């Protein structure tokens, strides 16, 4: 029995009982209580500030729910990262090399779940969101798909054969190297790589390049050309690497710029240059590259999927 998170676990008895989740994001953490999108009993946001006080507030919310509603069947933690997700590691469940001040090395699993004596599961925030989209959203019924979010950072949740991809650790496609457009020497803003994908095409990168707040950048600004080219390379890379049946792309940048979806579809077709027949393989790019279905709820619901998986494994249910 594997313990990595899957989209295929049926919402059985334990999942219908009370589950708790926490989505830890770069700007806010969302605590959620319930069992799915039609059963959200409470949801509380906490600003992601100084580490110890933020974790204390989250623990206080979870404790309050437990005291009011009774014990949880499982707890899911969907966290920004990178995370150490190697179960044999001494630092399993810790944040590793984050750029968020004061959070490097944080034992998220231990500090939020270690003392609770209940099934706990942890994964990245974007993997959690992908799992939620597979269970309830725009990838429902699919075992092979990708979920991309383009916002403060760029994250990709890759689902292959119904499970989040996991090998030596989780994947980090937001930081792939990008072939630059001719003559484009803008250095990018990633603290680790400069002009990786996130360093070129995340919301802060776009704003830094334009010298304007994102909302003030005109739709016809030349700043969108390298952004479209970089994200198009991500789409092609994902298609060629894992052959997903659908690619969901959302996040603040894409949601606020509807024209970007059209551009990205065109860019993928242009970039493939006839090498693959998307119409034949996928029914056409308009059906292949699509918006997510759960909106801002994908992240918190992802934490509930992780909680359901933890409960499923703990109860030896089939399909976990
Ligand atoms: Zn990077």
Question: Layout of SSEs?
Answer:
Elements: H1 13-16, E1 19-24, E2 28-36, E3 39-47, H2 51-69, E4 74-79, H3 108-113, E5 120-124, H4 125-136, E6 145-150, E7 154-160, E8 163-164, H5 197-201, H6 203-210, H7 224-242, E9 246-250, H8 252-256, H9 258-272, H10 278-282, H11 285-288, E10 289-290, H12 298-314
Helix pairs in contact: 4-12, 7-9
The structure holds zinc ion.
The site of zinc ion has 7 residues, from helix 5.
In short:
This protein is of the alpha/beta class. It has twelve helices and ten strands.
Keywords:
2 domains, 5-stranded mixed β-sheet, alpha/beta, 320 residues, Nucleotidyltransferase, domain 5, binds zinc ion, globular, single chain
Report the total helices. Answer: 12
Beta strands, count: 10
Q: Write the CATH architecture name of the largest domain.
A: 2-Layer Sandwich
**Average pLDDT over all residues:** 93
Whole-number total of structural domains: 2
Show unreliable segments.
Answer: 9-15
CATH C-level class of the largest domain: Alpha Beta
Order of helices and strands: HEEEHEHEHEEEHHHEHHHHEH
User: In CATH, what is the homologous superfamily of the largest domain?
Assistant: ATPase, nucleotide binding domain
Strand percentage lies at 15-25%
Percentage of residues in helical conformation: 25-40%
Structural class: alpha/beta
What does this entry look like structurally?
It is a single chain. The protein is of the alpha/beta class and 320 residues long. It folds into 2 domains: 12-125 and 299-314, 2-Layer Sandwich (Nucleotidyltransferase, domain 5); 138-292, 2-Layer Sandwich (Nucleotidyltransferase, domain 5). It has helices at 13-16, 51-69, 108-113, 125-136, 197-201, 203-210, 224-242, 252-256, 258-272, 278-282, 285-288, 298-314; strands spanning 19-24, 28-36, 39-47, 74-79, 120-124, 145-150, 154-160, 163-164, 246-250, 289-290. The strands form 2 sheets. Strands 3-2-1-4-5 form a 5-stranded mixed beta sheet, with helices on both faces. A hairpin with a 2-residue loop joins β2 (28-36) and β3 (39-47). α7 (224-242) packs across α9. It is globular and about 60 Å long. Residues 9-15 have low confidence and may be disordered. Residues 175, 190, 192-193, 196, 198-199 line the site of zinc ion.
